[in-house]
Amino acid sequence: MLTLKLIEEETERVIAGLEKKHFSGAKEAVAKAIEINNRRKDAQKKSDAALAESKKYASEIGALMKQGKKDEAEAAKAEVAKLKETIAELTESQKQAEAELTAHLCTIPNIPYDLVPDGASAEDNLVVKSNLCECKPGDNVGNWSVVPNNGEAKLPHWDLAKKYNLIDFDLGVKISGAGFPVYVGKGAQLQRALINFFLAEANKAGYTEIMPPTVVNQASGYGTGQLPDKEGQMYHCEIDDLYLIPTAEVPVTNIYRDVILDEKQLPIKNCAYTQCFRREAGSYGKDVRGLNRLHEFSKIEIVRIDKPEHSKQSHDEMLAHVEGLLQKLELPYRILRLCGGDMSFTAAICYDFEVYSEAQQRWLEVSSVSNFDTYQANRLKCRYRNADKKVELCHTLNGSALALPRIVAALLENNQTEKGIRIPKALVPYTGFEYID
Questions:
Q1: pTM of the full predicted structure?
Q2: Can you list the positions of beta strands (E) in 53-211?
Q3: Strand order in 268-277's β-sheet?
Q4: Can you tell me the distance from the alpha carbon of 88 to that of 341, in angstroms, rounded to the nearest whole number?
Q5: Are strands 333-337 and 349-357 parallel, antiparallel or unpaired?
Q6: Worst-scoring range by mean pLDDT, 152-156, 196-200, 236-240, 316-320?
């Protein structure tokens, strides 16, 4: 969540940032945060004054008793008792204001960096790089066209999965429901190969592998911002009050909740493979067919904890890492800088990676790489002690490296040959085969 220091000292910048994110009622939300905090500070000020007055009376009681001024001493005791009641009331008011303030701050999203483009929807995102499109970097998505494929028509991945017996969507429906595919034979081997490939590449880049739980408590969901913002999109185990994770970002980042790190430990670089679970409520139509949108899927996540002055470099390194994976997989891709209106609730800046599906003639998102500035760290109380022994909030960053379903879809659709589906050279050591036939 945003810090009160930022809200109070840079009020106009905060309002402008919230409006850039198309957050409704930005001015009112900021004004309310300041008003609640003023109430909290006023209660604390009055409580401190009453406590000081109480201590003064208490120090006089003994002297009055020694002087034989029993009535005055009793009057002082009565004043102390009244002040204690007042202090208790003020303390309760202060606690209520603090709880109200925290709850309100949780409803206010992060503010975007200046580099984030204006815009209300995905059409306003900027393409910063591509190895397939025709247009100039810096134009928005709506202006970009795809180089047409002049070869034979391609089969979509759901047809290829059936043809080569790779994925059984109907069996998944039988066992669990729509959005829970069953991978079979070389389809399962391809999944495992991609997981091992992505983890090996992360290890080469200096990331420490974590194997975290795939269920988290409320505090963890709150810490990274999934709760309360995305509560309806998470699977909730109500009896135990636990949530199935939508991404490894949640458990891995929460390792550092309520932790004060030493500056020398930064940047921390972790990666994790997990199954991810998303309800995807309200998702219907052709764009959810096959592997395009699932309720359960495999993903490798990279997470960094860093100090503010180094987090931009960390973000750039993460972007280069994800791009390198797509290059090694020989996939057509583009990188988007998301506009304010299309960014997540918690991100300060975000880049999406999309791969092109020749069969579907559309782009498929496979990764989002975000810098959250201090927004998550403030909720997590994730801090570090600098060289001057001062405790500061960390910056948190994460990204998919990569999510498997649409990568698999693109690999199947874009590598169709007369011999079968060609496996990219970098992946062959992990699959053990060059073709799916």
A1: 0.91
A2: 126-130, 133-134, 145-146, 167-168, 182-183, 208-210
A3: 126-130, 333-337, 349-357, 362-371, 395-403, 296-306, 268-277, 208-210
A4: 45
A5: antiparallel
A6: 152-156
